[in-house]
Design goal:
mainly alpha; Growth Hormone, Chain: A; 15 helices; 2% strand
């Protein structure tokens, strides 16, 4: 068993640990992003053809329900393990193995019902990995380093996007081979964290009045992230179909490598901006200005995509969205952890906060279903831009943190 040590007041975690944690988080994102953003849409197009948006939306909704419940469950189970001295890492290891096994079901599925069941099992497995993982940041990274740690979380998406681009570029690889590669990369990224020693960043309990204020603030923070994540979820799931609407004469298989490369470029550019914003927020102890600015930039990018006349302008607008969204989401993770009312239930509470990642998987597809067609995504993108802007401005209502 990895022994636990309590950090002394003012003690900081090493840069090496922050990088190991960021790598493990990237592994968790690699476990699901290439599948949901590119590999699954391609598979569903083969199964459903012109009915792909309806089937894909239904699968995403079912998966989001399973993911929501699983993240809370495994976060709570990891809380119990911490209380008993066992730590959270054993649950991450379980989730890693279960996720790798779930890829086999996805590869074998050939009918709409089979792929829906396989994705549901995958969502349960990957959230057994993800639920306890983020709680480790709340437990083991001091508040004075959470901005940098949050900025490093932004590295996960460009790394996962690079993996996505690499996978769709492997013309020789079968679906099963691609999923096996995802499993291997995920395991290599997560394992270093599993062998590190747990070191808890102890904090004195806040006064009762502050606890009550934090509970109100975390509701506002929850709502703000939910609004921003509706856009992020819908865009990540339907990005390939969006570019098909701009270039209808190009087959999806031919567009996929270019979309994968664009994802990589957009999120690679977002990483240094998120890191700088996180470092600045640690130094100033003010995170709200960067949160609002990120949401505004993301909303501008979404509006630009809605009116883009061709691939070039759509790509530029997407990059603007990617940078703004990465800044908001990375710093929001650090911000929300400082609002949690009690250390004893961090896994459970972060699982509840994770509903802001999974509930959008219900709302985003519903919006796309109602407002988008295979040839036109303009209306849904404008709605997503408005929701993103509203989410950013809502953070101004938080009172207990700046």
């Amino acid at each position: 068993m990895i022994q636990t040590r309590i950090l002394t007041p003012g003690e900081r975690r090493s840069a090496g640990f922050l990088l190991v944690f960021a790598l493990a988080n990237a592994g968790g994102v690699i476990a699901y992003q290439p599948l949901l953003a590119l590999l699954l849409p391609l598979k569903i197009e083969l199964i459903a053809g012109e009915a792909r948006i309806g089937l894909f939306s239904a699968i995403v909704i079912v998966g989001a329900i399973v993911a929501s419940a699983s993240n809370i469950l495994f976060g709570w189970l990891s809380d119990r393990s911490v209380a008993r001295g066992g730590g959270r890492r054993r649950w991450i290891a379980f989730g890693l193995v279960a996720t790798a096994a779930s890829f086999a079901g996805i590869a074998l599925a050939q009918t709409p019902w089979a792929i829906m069941l396989a994705v549901g099992l995958f969502q349960a497995a990957v959230n057994a990995l993800l639920g306890p993982l983020l709680a480790i940041m709340a437990d083991e990274v001091p508040d004075a380093q959470k901005g940098v740690a949050g900025g490093l979380l932004a590295a996960a998406v460009p790394i996962a996007s690079a993996v996505s681009a690499m996978l769709v570029g492997l013309a020789w690889a079968s679906e099963g081979t691609r999923l096996a590669i995802v499993a291997a990369i995920t395991g290599a990224a997560v394992t270093p964290l599993l062998v590190t020693r747990a070191r808890i960043a102890a904090q004195p309990p806040p006064p009762v009045g502050v606890v009550m204020m934090r509970r109100q603030d975390i509701v506002i923070s929850f709502a703000a992230r939910l609004l921003v994540q509706v856009a992020g979820n819908a865009l990540s799931l339907y990005l390939l179909y969006y570019f098909q609407s701009i270039m209808p004469t190009v087959p999806a298989a031919a567009l996929a490598p270019g979309v994968g490369q664009l994802l990589t470029v957009g999120f690679v550019l977002s990483l240094p901006v998120a890191l700088l914003a996180g470092r600045a927020s640690d130094r100033s102890a003010r995170r709200k200005p960067a949160l609002v600015g990120g949401a505004v930039l993301a909303a501008i990018g979404l509006a630009g995509m809605a009116v883009a006349p061709d691939w070039r302008w759509a790509a530029i607008a997407f990059v603007a969205y990617a940078i703004g969204s990465a800044v908001f989401l990375a710093l929001h993770a650090a911000f929300a952890m400082q609002l949690l009312p009690t250390p004893a239930h961090r896994g459970r509470d972060l699982g509840l906060l994770n509903l802001t990642n999974t509930l959008p998987a219900l709302l985003g597809p519903l919006l796309a279903w109602m407002l988008a067609t295979p040839r036109d995504f303009s209306a849904v993108l404008l709605v997503l831009a408005a929701l993103t802007l509203a989410g950013g401005l809502a953070m101004l209502g938080v009172r207990s943190r700046r």
